[in-house]
Design a protein that fits this description.
Largest sheet: 4 strands, antiparallel
CATH architecture: 6 Propeller
Helix content: 10-25%
Number of domains: 1
Number of strands: 26
Distance between the termini: 75 Å
Strand order of the largest sheet: 1-26-25-24
CATH topology: Neuraminidase
CATH class: Mainly Beta
Radius of gyration: 21 Å
Length: 354
């Protein structure tokens, strides 16, 4: 009996040694996050998002970003590379198929649907459903994770490459590595040129222009903050922190062009992840495990409204995560907020007061 126990212990020790000697898929850095803010005051939990109507429930999978055209048709990209279109009568149809992973979506002034496809790059799809690649690289470096966009009144597309190292299906590696691989860029449709405006961002995500288009915001998801990049005025070409230490993981952000930004947070902060960040060795070991053993995102729905000074003016919650969760985009159309999700099987439609 004693020999059997010793044999088992010996085998376990050997397995642990083999596990520790196994190379990790990441090269993590130490990072000490600020203490998460409490959900109090304007951030106090409520049930407002439980009032949202659910569109295409159970029929659309992973509509990370939502766009609405001039005929009130609703578009969302899916996990299998399709862009589905929801008609006003409730019918759902395939609009296009990129064979990648459509993320950011927005219509330009010519009714072309501009798409950030994580694998295919920056795309344009005309009303006849013809797909054109606008850009797939910048400064000699291919896009690895084309993510989010906004379009100026002059047609310039501002967009992000979330990570130059990890692909969309590896985004959790970028979280654990805690190194700045993201880029923020612009695409000029007249010249066809891509310009890199910022490098070294910690998972460059959502993009939103201000009402006067004098600045543009870029989310750094894995630093819980938003960066402001100035386009006009004496600060043009410079950047600064717009808001820091958010209560969750900022994903996409949009502007109603009237002075309000709508910020979607994928979930609230995770204490285990925050406590793990200062220890690269532990993050290395976690990255070797199947993702089923990693800390889980809390099922939670959360959207914030911010003004152009970076002040949070409103928070919309769904604390149970049963109605809406993992919200990755919130965009205002015709008095409603349309809410997308990276993993959920529905689109939320929330009526704004007034």
């Amino acid at each position: 009996m004693k020999k059997g126990i010793l044999a088992v212990v010996g085998i376990l020790i050997i397995l642990v040694i083999i596990f520790l000697l196994q190379s990790a898929p990441i090269d993590p850095a130490a990072y000490t996050p600020p203490k998460a803010p409490g959900l109090t005051g304007v951030l106090a939990p409520n049930n407002l998002l439980q009032k949202a109507e659910l569109l295409a429930r159970g029929k659309i999978y992973g509509p990370e970003e939502v766009a609405v055209d001039s005929q009130r048709r609703v578009y969302g990209g899916t996990q299998d590379g399709k862009i589905l279109r929801l008609l006003p009568d409730g019918k759902l149809e395939v609009f296009a198929e990129t064979k990648g992973r459509p993320l950011g979506l927005q219509f330009d002034k010519n009714e072309n649907l501009i798409v950030c496809d994580a694998y295919k790059g920056l795309l344009s799809i005309d009303p006849q459903k013809t797909i054109k690649v606008l850009a797939a690289s910048a400064e000699g470096g291919p896009f690895k994770f084309t993510d989010a966009l906004d379009i100026s009144s002059g047609g310039v597309i501002y967009f992000t490459d979330a990570s130059s190292k990890y692909r969309q299906d590896e985004y959790l590696y970028d979280l654990l590595e805690s190194k700045p691989h993201g880029r923020f860029m612009s695409y000029d449709p007249v010249t066809g040129q891509v310009k890199v405006l910022l490098k070294g961002l910690y998972f460059a995500n959502g993009v939103a222009l201000s009402a006067q288009e004098d600045f543009v915001l870029v989310n750094e998801t894995y630093r819980y903050r938003i960066i402001r990049y100035w386009l006009k005025g004496p600060k043009a070409g410079t950047h600064e922190v717009f808001i820091d230490n958010l209560p969750g993981f900022p994903d996409n952000i949009s502007s109603n062009r009237k002075g309000t930004f709508w910020l979607a947070l994928f979930t609230v902060r995770n204490d285990i992840v925050d406590k793990l960040h200062p220890y690269p060795f532990l993050k290395e070991q976690m990255s070797k495990l199947p993702k089923a053993f990693w800390p889980k995102a809390k099922p939670y729905g959360l959207v914030l409204a911010l003004d152009e000074t970076g002040k949070i003016t409103l928070s919309l919650h769904e604390p149970t995560g049963k109605h809406l969760k993992e919200i990755t985009s919130a965009r205002e159309y015709g008095g409603y907020l349309y809410l997308g999700s990276l993993h959920n099987d529905r689109i939320g439609k929330y009526k704004l007061p007034g």
